[in-house]
Amino acid sequence: MQGLAWSLSLVLMAGVALIFLRVVAGASQPGGDAGTIAAAGYRWRDRLFWVVIVAGVAISFATLRKWPIPGHAAAAATPDVIVRAVGHQWRWELDRDTVRPGELVEFEVTSADVNHGFAIYRPEKSRILAQAQAMPGYTNKLQVRFDEPGDYEVLCLEYCGLAHHAMRAVIKVRADS
Ligand SMILES: [Cu+2]
């Protein structure tokens, strides 16, 4: 099977090389009218290329959101609450699951076995609010300020075995906690 794939690849590569050589050989011949028409076509194609590039960059720039991860200065801030989050196959262990809105929560994220992805989702529309890698032998600090009260779901973002999908916890953000 491997041998067949290899031979087929060689034949196809030779085909591409032949087409390439024909195009290169043809390009050096004078084109006449056809050449002029083709050149005009290429000019439009070039303009369209730049329009697409500029529009793409502008649209991306206008629609990209800021990373939900605080910058270095913010990350150095002293947290109001520290929550230790340990990933296990297949559950999350949090030493507390209730915080207040507005306070700076620092998650100390690690794992007891394999790599997991610690991801906190906003209550609405299941959008990710923050995430950090949960790695055995390391502790990653993740600072999050929950502005709105609600139930924030924690899921695993890295496939870690059979019941990966069952790794679910809830962080309750309550004004009266
Ligand atoms: Cu996991």
Q: Any chance you could write out the topology, listing elements then pairs?
A:
Layout: H1 2-27, H2 32-63, H3 72-75, E1 81-88, E2 91-94, E3 98-99, E4 104-111, E5 116-121, E6 128-134, E7 140-145, E8 150-156, E9 168-173
Parallel strand pairs: 1-4, 3-9
Antiparallel strand pairs: 1-2, 4-7, 5-6, 5-8, 8-9
Copper (II) ion is lined by residues 87, 116, 156, 158, 160, 164, 167.
Structure in words:
The protein is an alpha+beta fold and 177 residues long. The protein has 2 domains: 2-63; 72-173, Cupredoxins -  blue copper proteins (Immunoglobulin-like, Sandwich). 35% of the residues lie in helices and 31% in strands. It is built from 3 helices and 9 strands. A 5-stranded mixed sheet has the order 3-9-8-5-6, with no helix packed on it. A hairpin with a 2-residue loop joins strand 1 and strand 2 (91-94). It is elongated and about 80 Å long. The termini are far apart. Bound molecules: copper (II) ion. Residues 87, 116, 156, 158, 160, 164, 167 line the site of copper (II) ion (CU). Belongs to the cytochrome c oxidase subunit 2 family. GO terms for molecular function: copper ion binding; cytochrome-c oxidase activity. Residues 78-177 form the Cytochrome oxidase subunit II copper A binding domain. Keywords: Copper, Electron transport, Membrane, Metal-binding, Transmembrane, Transmembrane helix, Transport. It is found in: Membrane.
